[in-house]
Amino acid sequence: MKANRKLVLSILLPILVGSLASIPTSRNVRNWYVTINKPGFNPPNWLFAPVWTTLYVIMGISLYCIWKLPASVTRNNALKLFMAQLALNFLWSFLFFEFHLIAWALVDIILLLLFIILCIAGFSRISRVSAWLLVPYLAWVSFATALNYTIYKLN
């Protein structure tokens, strides 16, 4: 596959996953989400879409940096870790917003954090740039974990 096509697909994949995960979010953010108790550090709703869009693009660039490398066990394992964390990312929106399972969403996001760390470690073995590109994502999900935990405690 040509490099340009890999780059486009690498960026589109996280954006597509994020777009699909935003469906339950957008359906519930204006009704259910406004009814639950939230901490004072809860960001305004308008902030989430631009932050996630930016993170998904950066994740895609990071993915491309790994995918473009020659196939190897290390590269393929790193790609599997990326896909695992992306699946956990996708699942969280459904657990939290669609099904209102705040505790299960917390379990999911803790696993997501773990898999992001594993992904960064796997990426760093073959591309430091790719690993560093995931650090803002790790930071945001760490914040989201604290938010999820606090919402769980408040409700």
From TrEMBL:
GO terms for cellular component: membrane. The keyword Metal-binding does not apply. It is found in: Membrane. It holds the Pfam family TspO_MBR. It comes from the Bacteria. The keyword Glycoprotein does not apply. Keywords: Membrane, Transmembrane, Transmembrane helix. Belongs to the TspO/BZRP family. This is TspO and MBR related proteins.
